[in-house]
Amino acid sequence: MLFRSPVSLRGGEPSEHPHFFEMLETLPAGLPLKLVTNLSFDVTELMGRVSPQRMNSHPSWAPIRATFHLGRTDPEEMLHKVMLLEESGYRVGILAMAPPDRHAELRDMQTWFLSWGIDFRIRAFVGYVDGELKGHFRYEDATGQSETRSAACRSAEISIAPDGRVYRCRRECFGENGAVGHLLDDDLVIRARHSPCQNYGVCHPCDVELRPTVFRGSRRTAMEILPLD
What we know:
7 helices, single chain, three-stranded antiparallel beta sheet, alpha/beta, five-stranded parallel beta sheet
């Protein structure tokens, strides 16, 4: 059986968008959805406007992925919201990440959520510690460099800004630079092929980090890059 790739709403925090629920409601019914969120919004509104079946139509791990942040997320509040959603039929999982010196704290929090029957997974850390970039990357020299090189890039994902503009990668999207068009453009064409880029060396870490896939033991990156010089 073939499944359509899901549309993943993430940010930042996607629920901060003024038309967040309208976007969820108006996307085509047959299009699978994934939501990456800190659950800072009223989940009862989601339950009243978007059915569990609408969110559960893709065989991914958890279509609603709640991001837990040490020191910022209230564990009791997140537990309450996750349980409300799961009791109403939504599939929810918690994702968390922390720098190495706080990993033990995160493990304790994982144990607490698991004791309530909540799926809590810890992602490999990606970020800077004392000025040094940490993480597992497919292209070790693709990010954090002082100089750039030319390359040919092909993304397995499409980055869409809150205003509807479409970008080739996260670096361009977050920097609001180099949009290839707008979602509402009648002539918007996105081709799954390598295209030239002059910014190899300052890629966004999330585009070149190695991530686990649904197949145990395998990993992938959002971006496939062919360095040219």
